[in-house]
Design brief:
The protein is of the alpha/beta class. The chain contains 29 helices and 17 strands. A hairpin with a 3-residue loop joins β12 and β13. About 4% of the residues have low confidence.
């Protein structure tokens, strides 16, 4: 198929609800061009005995699941390479061939005219120059890539990791790389997975095969005097690779690059409990990040040990990518609303010690990915709805790795409470499984007889709504949307509807939001309440006793919330148990304790109270504080802005000293009010 056909099919699979006008805009095509291309696709579908793509009067399309199978089967796909990829494919061919390459060779590989290839070479030269390399030309011999081996391998990594639809892999098959090298590459990765009890994500597994082939090919011919970086040399992975007989004929520099490609690759699972020195050190940062996140967001993480191990498995390759300026194959576009920006700022602050350790700042893409993952802890904290006895079960198949897999399954659980999600797996695991499920959600088409829906982590509200409606309709669960039909029938009795389809979609969007957010008691959904929405002047007490028992201090701090019917008496005993726990994390800054618990432990409404002591209050296990701020959040999806203002306040020595030197609740509230209104 040509480039236009490939792009239209990709759009249809990625966004089933797309309209012809949006497709025209995204692909810069006329309506006639879209219709003509759809006609070509339908001819191919008809030749394979498949139903055609239908376009409706409202501009939408419908097609059968068989279209996905055609794409997965890769029939007649990628015979040629799209314009945007040809220049990179030419560069990849030059990287694989360390000698000069003629123009005739390039036309034979890419299947385009010499005129087109010459235009692509000019684009390739611009890319090469940005990487501090040169594209040399010799009239009699052809083209040659000149420059540092490190920059050449970095260029190869960027091309392969960022290429779409495995174009690099398809082209490498035509390169006819030595079969022994291909075998070495596959065996090396397979042996590595077995040795370290690790399973790479599907995309990285495929990319690693290609990258190792390129590195070994160049390592057998080229030489480099560059030394191995100590950060890589101390890893168990590098030390293991150095001992492999398959790599005995290439230098340390090339072994280092193979190690780097492995170390920076996302894993889907890792069972090895033996940690290397750098992993042990990184574990300390991971724990610090998680504890900081708990304090800044009041999230209670179930099975924190397991969560931290998963986070380690993601953060370790991320650190190597960041330190050595390698791209990630995972990107997310977050909305620019205030709560998401708050989370981004929290994560950026929490990873600063980690950035100092590796000597490089995390990229925006890596920060967004972490933000999305941690953000769904907040979602779990706010919405614990579970559906039992589900008629249908599903799995999530993700090619990218453990973090993205968990993001996807959390999103889908939210959209489909009627479906029981059994877990996540890689595509390799999926094809080896016994299929004890009915539905598969994946981020790429799969060759399966089960219902397979293509999803992505950053779906818009409309995309979520459309996916939900499509899946429920396919599974025969329309009864679940009884509310929708009842509302439409009611509206039809009393009003004339000009656009029923649009009304239906907007009502679905509203109903879907009920699964995503709790009632907000009349608050503006676009604005998160600030600290003053939770703290009243009557909730503040100032004491001057030198020897105040911590339990008495806690009760004095909580008493205003009890009297104002924000919490029940039992909440006090829950907080006593919490503070008595050696692993209590409820502290902000040096002087403030923020005891808190989940709504089920006795919270009736939102509120924060303050007890300010002129003298330190001794808590269990040697901790001393001068401010106790019991927190009660009943609406668990609205507090993020307020708790972050409180966290910022706790580290502002000037404002804390002002509070500690107050004598009345009125004075303290005035300080808080001025602080919040200034936006410090």
């Amino acid at each position: 198929m040509n480039e236009r056909i490939q792009e239209i099919i990709s759009l249809l699979l990625e966004k089933p609800d797309i309209k012809v006008t949006e497709m025209m805009d995204k692909l810069a095509l006329t309506r006639r061009q879209v219709n003509y291309t759809i006609g070509l696709i339908n001819e191919d579908l008809k030749a394979h005995g498949l139903s055609p793509i239908k376009r409706h009067s409202n501009g939408t399309f419908t097609y059968t699941d068989k279209l996905q199978e055609l794409l997965v089967a890769d029939k007649n796909l990628n015979n040629n390479f799209p314009n945007k990829n040809r220049a990179e494919m030419i560069l990849l061919y030059l990287i694989c061939n360390v000698d000069y390459v003629s123009l005739d060779d390039l036309t034979a590989i890419v299947h385009y005219s010499k005129t087109t290839i010459l235009q692509d070479l000019r684009i390739a030269e611009q890319t090469v120059n940005k990487c501090h390399l040169n594209l040399k030309y010799n009239r009699s011999r052809g083209y040659f890539l000149q420059g540092s081996e490190e920059q050449i391998l970095r260029l190869a990594t960027n091309i392969i990791l960022q290429s779409s639809d495995n174009l690099a892999g398809n082209l490498l098959e035509k390169f006819a790389i030595n079969k022994d090298i291909v075998k070495i590459s596959l065996n090396l990765i397979t042996k590595f997975e077995a040795k370290f009890q690790v399973s790479f994500s599907d995309k990285y597994f495929n990319n690693l095969k290609l990258l190792v082939q390129i590195i070994v090919s160049r390592g057998l011919v080229c030489k480099s005097d560059l030394k191995v970086d100590g950060f890589i040399a101390k890893t168990k992975e590098y030390q293991y690779l150095r001992k492999l007989t398959e790599l005995s004929n290439i230098g340390d520099f090339y072994i280092k690059w193979i190690a780097l490609e492995i170390l920076s690759s996302n894993v889907f699972d890792k069972n090895n409990s033996e940690y290397s020195p750098d992993e042990i050190e990184l574990f300390g940062f991971v724990h610090q990040i998680v504890e900081g996140f708990k304090s800044r967001t009041l999230v209670n993480i179930q099975d924190q040990s397991r969560f931290e191990k998963r986070l380690l498995n993601h953060l370790r390759p991320a650190c190597f990518r960041v330190k050595y300026r390698l791209p990630s194959i995972e990107t997310l576009n977050l909305d620019n609303d205030k709560d998401e920006q708050l989370l981004v700022d929290i994560i950026k602050d929490l990873i600063k010690p980690l950035e100092q350790w590796i000597g490089t700042k995390f990229s925006e893409d890596e920060v967004k990915l972490l933000t999305y993952y941690f953000g769904y802890l907040l979602f779990d904290n706010a919405n614990s709805q579970k559906i039992s006895n589900a008629k249908y079960s599903a799995v999530v198949v993700c090619s990218n790795g453990i973090i993205m897999s968990n993001i996807l399954i959390k999103i889908l659980k939210n959209i489909f409470p009627e479906i029981s999600f059994l877990g996540t797996m890689s595509s390799r695991e999926f094809f080896e499984s016994d299929h004890d499920f009915n539905v598969v959600f994946s981020n790429m088409p799969l060759k399966t007889k089960l219902r397979n829906y293509i999803v992505k982590p950053n779906m818009t509200s409309t995309e979520k709504t459309t996916l939900r409606y499509r899946v429920l309709k396919d599974l025969g669960l329309e009864k679940v949307d009884y509310q929708l039909n009842a509302l439409l029938n009611l509206i039809a009795k009393y009003a004339k509807v000009d656009n029923e389809a649009k009304l239906r979609n907007e009502i679905i969007s509203i109903l879907l939001s009920d699964y995503e957010k709790n009632d907000r008691k009349g608050e503006d959904a676009g604005e998160l309440p600030n600290l003053l929405n939770y703290i009243k002047e009557k909730y503040i007490k100032v004491i001057s006793s030198k020897k105040t028992d911590w339990k008495d201090a806690l009760y004095q701090a909580l008493e205003p919330l009890i009297e104002d019917n924000k919490v029940e008496d039992q909440y006090y005993f829950e907080l006593v148990d919490q503070i008595s726990n050696r692993y209590n994390y409820s502290f902000l800054g040096q002087d403030m304790a923020i005891p808190h618990a989940v709504p089920e432990k006795g919270i009736k409404d939102d509120g924060i109270s303050l007890l300010i002591s002129h003298y330190p209050i001794k808590l269990p296990y040697g901790k001393k504080v001068r401010i106790i701020a019991p927190i009660a959040f009943f609406h668990m999806d609205r507090y993020l802005n307020a708790i972050n203002q409180l966290a910022d306040l706790s580290t502002n020595d000037r404002e804390i000293n002002k509070l500690l030197n107050t004598n009345t609740s009125e004075q303290a509230f005035t300080i808080l009010k001025e602080y919040v209104e200034r936006g410090d």
